[in-house]
Amino acid sequence: MHASMSTAPERDRLANQARLLRPASVLLFVAIVLAVIFGVAWQYGWHGRLFFQESAADARAQLESAELMLRSGQYPAAQRQIAPILRDPRGPMYRQARLLQWRIAKTQALAIPADSPARQAAMLALRPQLAGLFALGDWSVDQWQGFAQDAFALGAYELSAQAWSEAAKLDPQQRTANMLAAVRAWAAGNQPAKAGDLLLQLAEQSQNGAQQKAFFLRGLAWLEGGKGAESALQAGQATLQKLPALWHDHDVVLSMARLALSAGRPELAAQWLHRELLRAAPVKKMP
Q1: d(CA 196, CA 255)
Q2: CA-to-CA distance for 53 and 23, rounded, in angstroms?
Q3: Positive or negative CA dihedral for 226, 230, 233, 238?
Q4: pLDDT value at position 53?
Q5: CA 77 to centroid of chain Cα atoms
Q6: How many angstroms separate the CA atoms of 157 and 190, rounded?
Q7: How many helices and strands in the chain, by DSSP H and E?
Q8: pLDDT at position 118, please?
Q9: Which residue among 44, 54, 133, 211 is buried most deeply as judged by most CB within 10 Å?
Q10: Rounded CA gap, 186 and 198, in Å?
Q11: Cβ of 224: how many Cβ atoms within 10 Å?
């Protein structure tokens, strides 16, 4: 009787322990399963947030290594260092790698003896790469200006003008200087009409009378050389509608009259000259 009474509490105690251990066992089982899944995923390449951190660190190390190789003239090795980064356009170091890729290619091309066919071929091959950098967009003013200078040195004058124009959009204080650089690039690329259009834009935007006149007259000359007298005449008239102060300027009036004659518009030339004669005629005083 005593033995049967002593075993009942013992059975209750063991049952309570079993009830307590059952949830713990389930949790332990779940934890083991998750650990196995995580381990398999890790083995096959999914490293979660840690992987991103490691890949960014690896990319920085590869960029630094490529920079050292560039400085020592190991151009192919430097390109190989950044090749993994360039395969992922969404990577955190992709843009830096593209810039370094450009620097490597440019430095390697410039290391070839000047005036050699190999040098000319290498310089031509740089143009598409530079255009690819332009397509990425979102560069700083300094970067656009650097691209513009590089493009000009390559003879890619249209790319140079585009880069100067992008720099002009980002820096209002240096807008005129950057647009004038774009004008020089268009002119160097034998596109005087585009250079003339930019100069007329500058004339419209300038608040300085002397500068307005200089830009206007130069713009007309470039437009005439690029598109002919009629196009220059029409563009000049449209621009003067926004710059009424120039209507009475002696040099501007004579320039417009000359353009009208060159365009086969003698009646319009006569109107311009008549306006100038009236302006220049002395005013008679009443007795």
Answers
A1: 15
A2: 36
A3: negative
A4: 42
A5: 28
A6: 9
A7: 13, 0
A8: 93
A9: 133
A10: 9
A11: 24
Interhelix angle for 266-280 vs 250-262, to 10°? 160
- Single out the residue of 19, 38, 97, 98 nearest to residue 64, CA to CA: 97
pLDDT value at residue 21: 45
Q: Which residue blocks in 44-140 are alpha helix, DSSP H?
A: 48-71, 75-86, 94-110, 117-136
How many angstroms separate the CA atoms of 24 and 250, rounded? 99
Listed as ranges, residues in the chain with pLDDT below 50 are: 1-6, 20-21, 40-54, 283-287
pLDDT for 3? 44
Q: Which of 214, 210, 234, 209 is nearest to 223 (CA)?
A: 234
Burial 80-92 (b: 16+ CB within 10 A, else e): ebbeebeeeeebe
pLDDT at res. 37: 55
Place of tokens 């397509």: 135
Amino acid at 115: D
* Residue 91 phi, psi (nearest 5): -70, 155
User: What is the per-residue pLDDT for 146?
Assistant: 96
Q: Does residue 148 contact residue 163 with C-beta atoms inside 8 Å?
A: yes
Output the pLDDT for position 36: 53
Tell me the CA distances in angstroms from 105 to 61, 152, 239, 276, one per residue in order.
20, 16, 44, 59
**Res 248: pLDDT:** 85
Question: Which residue from 150, 155, 217, 227 is spatially nearest to 191, judged by alpha carbons?
Answer: 227
Q: Residue 181 has which token pair?
A: 């650089």
Residue written as token pair 């003879």: 155
Token couple for 184: 């020089």
